[in-house]
Design brief:
The chain is rod-shaped and about 135 Å long. By secondary structure, the protein is an all-alpha fold. Helix 1 (2-42) packs antiparallel against helix 3 (58-85). The chain is built from five helices and no strands. It has helices at residues 2-42, 47-50, 58-85, 92-134, 141-234. The longest helix is centred in the C-terminal third of the chain and has 94 residues, at 141-234. The chain has one domain. One of its GO terms (biological process) is protein transport. Belongs to the GOSR1 family. Involved in transport from the ER to the Golgi apparatus as well as in intra-Golgi transport. It belongs to a super-family of proteins called t-SNAREs or soluble NSF (N-ethylmaleimide-sensitive factor) attachment protein receptor. GO terms for molecular function: SNAP receptor activity.
């Protein structure tokens, strides 16, 4: 009896620890994502942003912050997976909380992809302009604009595909949670089914005992009636 209780207590402690870690990581991601968004808004991909003298360039800062955020998102994803593994079967409250944390992670991922696409478009635009000025004067402004629009279209399509993939991962996680719930229900039904033969055997034993007691009682009552009749007849 102590085994399941100890296991449940360990799962509860694991859930609480993961929940604290998730909230802490979400706070860090939110703070760093805000700073990253402000830096992205000021980045135009110009040569000055790529190679200033003294201190890191804006481009270097962007790459460093993007790497930090990706690392935090990976850690948050790992924590969410640990949370999913510590949810007891049928605990709909915790499943709802877990789904909320996964939605937050998905929103962060979509925002990071959007900002990265914006930075990538700025870099491509600056690189295209630099090539045009240095060695390709025949490339007209109209062609440059068309290429940039095509690049932005591809980036938007890629971001949309990433969102669809993220939604698919979220649905997959929900289905896994539901499967875990159904597996828990199945285990309980199996456990009850395994107990039914014992219960049925006990009921049959009780029925046999009751039938035997009924027969004994009938014999005793019949004997008493017979003795009473004999006594009355002899009087």
């Amino acid at each position: 009896m102590a085994g399941p209780a100890a296991s449940s207590s360990a799962a509860s402690h694991e859930w609480d620890a993961c929940r604290r870690d998730a909230r802490k990581l979400e706070g860090e991601v939110d703070m760093k994502l805000g700073a990253y968004a402000k830096l992205c808004a000021t980045f135009d991909g110009s040569p000055a942003a790529h190679g200033p003298h003294g201190g890191p360039s804006t481009d270097q800062l962007l790459r460093a912050k993007a790497s930090e955020i990706e690392s935090l998102l990976q850690r948050l994803s790992d924590v969410n997976e640990r949370m999913g593994g510590s949810v007891p079967s049928g605990d709909h409250g915790r499943l709802h909380t877990l789904a909320r944390h996964r939605d937050i992670l998905q929103d962060y991922g979509q925002e990071v992809r959007r900002l990265n696409a914006s930075v990538g478009a700025a870099r491509d635009r600056a690189e295209l302009m630099a090539r045009s000025e240095e060695g390709a004067p025949h490339v007209s402004v109209q062609v440059q604009g068309a290429l940039l629009r095509e690049r932005n279209t591809i980036a938007s399509s890629t971001a949309a595909i990433d969102e669809v993939i993220g939604s698919a991962h979220a649905v997959e996680a929900e289905l896994k949670d539901q499967r875990r719930v159904f597996e828990g229900i199945g285990d309980r039904l199996y456990a009850l089914g395994s107990r039914f033969p014992v219960v049925n055997g006990l009921l049959r034993a009780i029925a046999r005992r009751k039938s035997r007691d009924t027969i004994v009682l009938s014999v005793v009552v019949s004997a008493c009636i017979l003795v009473l009749l004999v006594f009355l007849w002899r009087r």
